[in-house]
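Deliverable D2.4 — example input (structure tokens):
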């Protein structure tokens, strides 16, 4: 399965946006169907709302890979998992908040006798241990609050690596976020395409950790641009949309150097669908160094510029 696992997917599709525009107004009258440009502009707004949300990418403040056994956690440099506390808005964080105990395919959280840590919003007794992650699908959220400043963290798995994804829910990255620049919306970049069935069951996709991830192959998306044929390999994450990671001649110039992402609707019975480059968006790694993004495979590096969708953000 790909590392994406739906994490990059927006909560609203253009279909959902159309339904929002069609909902009745205060006078009980139906609103008009949005224009294409209105729909894309609303998509951009919702994308930014999601980035700023508690589960968005802007508040990530740490990524700690665990070793077997006890992993101490806090700001003290002697800890195994050191929260470097780079945010000037941050309050004092404990030298030693607690421990992660990694054994087999499971991770336990061990609380100390000073700090009230919650697991799935339930207070843990002092000096207690609880399993917060295992190979059977258990994945709990831990949290700690001091003086109104809240943090949360979860355990993630990336192939053979187990780590802690740590969030500062009042990160200045969220407070200072002013949006993402994007190219002018141009409907010519909504291109008809045909998805050909896959020959191989899986695509091997590299990620920023240097790992090779076997991702379910949805097939090859064929399309024509300026009279020439091109194709993109597509990943099936499940659900009613398919996922593409791609690069083009704008990558590293006006767009993020490691490429961009895009979702497309599942094709009809004849394989027909659209690829809308106006909905091309930055991967999490454009916003934070604490993400583990997939990279475009060589066959998905298009030789021409696509001045559509999101432009680059930040310096990651």
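Example output (designed residues):
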């Amino acid at each position: 399965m790909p590392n994406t696992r739906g994490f990059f997917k927006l909560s609203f599709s253009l279909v959902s946006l159309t339904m929002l525009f069609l909902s009745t107004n205060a006078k009980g009258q139906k609103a008009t169907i949005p224009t294409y440009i209105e729909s894309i502009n609303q998509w951009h707004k919702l994308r930014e709302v999601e980035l700023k949300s508690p589960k968005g990418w802007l508040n990530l403040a740490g990524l700690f890979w665990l070793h077997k056994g006890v992993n101490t956690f806090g700001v003290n440099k002697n800890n195994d998992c050191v929260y470097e506390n780079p945010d000037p808005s941050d309050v004092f964080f404990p030298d030693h908040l607690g421990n992660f105990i990694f054994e087999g395919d499971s991770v336990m959280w061990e609380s100390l006798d000073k700090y009230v840590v919650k697991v799935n919003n339930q207070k843990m007794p002092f000096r207690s241990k609880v399993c917060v992650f295992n190979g059977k699908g258990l994945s709990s959220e831990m949290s700690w609050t001091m003086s109104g400043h809240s943090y949360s963290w979860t355990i993630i798995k990336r192939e053979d690596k187990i780590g802690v994804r740590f969030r500062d829910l009042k990160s200045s990255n969220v407070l200072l976020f002013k949006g993402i620049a994007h190219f002018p919306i141009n409907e010519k970049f909504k291109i008809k395409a045909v998805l050909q069935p896959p020959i191989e069951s899986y695509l091997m996709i590299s990620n920023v950790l240097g790992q090779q991830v076997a991702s379910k192959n949805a097939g090859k998306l064929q399309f024509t641009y300026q009279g020439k044929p091109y194709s993109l390999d597509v990943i099936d994450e499940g659900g009613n949309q398919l996922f593409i990671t791609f690069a083009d001649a704008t990558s590293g110039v006006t767009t993020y150097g490691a490429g961009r992402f895009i979702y497309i609707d599942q094709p009809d019975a004849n394989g027909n669908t659209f690829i809308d480059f106006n909905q091309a968006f930055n991967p999490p790694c454009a916003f934070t160094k604490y993400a583990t993004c997939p990279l475009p495979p060589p066959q998905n590096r298009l030789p021409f510029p696509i001045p559509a969708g999101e432009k680059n953000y930040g310096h990651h």
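The chain has two domains: 14-55+179-300, 60-175.
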